[in-house]
Design brief:
The protein contains 7 helices and 4 strands. The chain has 211 residues and is mainly alpha-helical. The protein folds into 3 domains: 33 residues, no CATH class; 52 residues; 76 residues, no CATH class.
């Protein structure tokens, strides 16, 4: 049974479809008979084998890709599941923390060494001079322990016969951070230092007198 161009157009429901196939070489006309060129190459057993082989290869590649994605998901998921509780605990800790006060409103807790109560034998101007020197030295007195240690050393050296002024002047002259026993000889026994009238005596004239 021969097939005409009109038959091809009716089968495809497209007018001129047969002429289009002829124009691109997919159909040929031989004595008013339509033929498919290279029909065996495209529709024979070898062509069917090629199609089936391509389908198997495509399916195999798809299965491998799916399996690999599942393996990657299994290896990654436990890590996230293990990390989630840690993240939740960190969030809970942040929620339990008290709110941070505003920097501008936070009360200052720094200790002022000039406001501490001094012993009667230590003039306030002399103590202020020592505090100011420590600040200029870059080692300010900021703690109660630092204040107590300075007063303790001054009291100890005073019992050994050294005036607080002598001890402080020595550290300032040598730019020492601490207070140390003077190398000069202590005052003689029975001599009373003029510590209580320190502010009224010009520098260099302080001394002791014999009662």
């Amino acid at each position: 049974m021969s097939v005409t161009k009109n038959a091809v157009d009716r089968i495809t429901f497209v007018k001129g479809f047969a002429d289009a196939l002829i124009s691109i070489g997919w159909l040929t006309v031989d004595d008013s008979t339509l033929k498919f060129p290279n029909f065996e190459r495209h529709n024979g057993n070898s062509s069917k084998k090629r199609v089936l082989t391509n389908q198997r290869v495509t399916k195999s590649r798809k299965m491998k890709r799916t399996t690999q994605e599942e393996c990657n998901a299994e290896s990654v998921t436990p890590a996230f599941q293990k990390a989630l509780p840690e993240i939740e605990r960190e969030i809970d800790k942040e929620r339990d923390l008290p709110p941070t006060p505003h920097r501008g409103r936070r009360a200052s807790t720094r200790l002022d060494p000039l406001t501490v109560e001094l012993p009667d034998w230590l003039p306030a101007p002399l103590w202020a001079e020592w505090v100011g020197f420590r600040q200029q030295l870059g080692k300010p007195i900021k703690t109660k322990q630092g204040i107590a240690e300075s007063l303790k050393n001054l009291a100890k050296f005073r019992k050994q016969g050294h005036l607080p002024e002598t001890v402080i002047r020595q550290s300032i002259a040598n730019e020492w951070q601490g207070l140390f026993e003077p190398k000069s000889a202590p005052r003689q026994a029975g001599m009373t230092p003029l510590e209580t009238s320190y502010t009224g005596i010009p520098p260099g004239f302080q001394g002791s007198y014999e009662p």
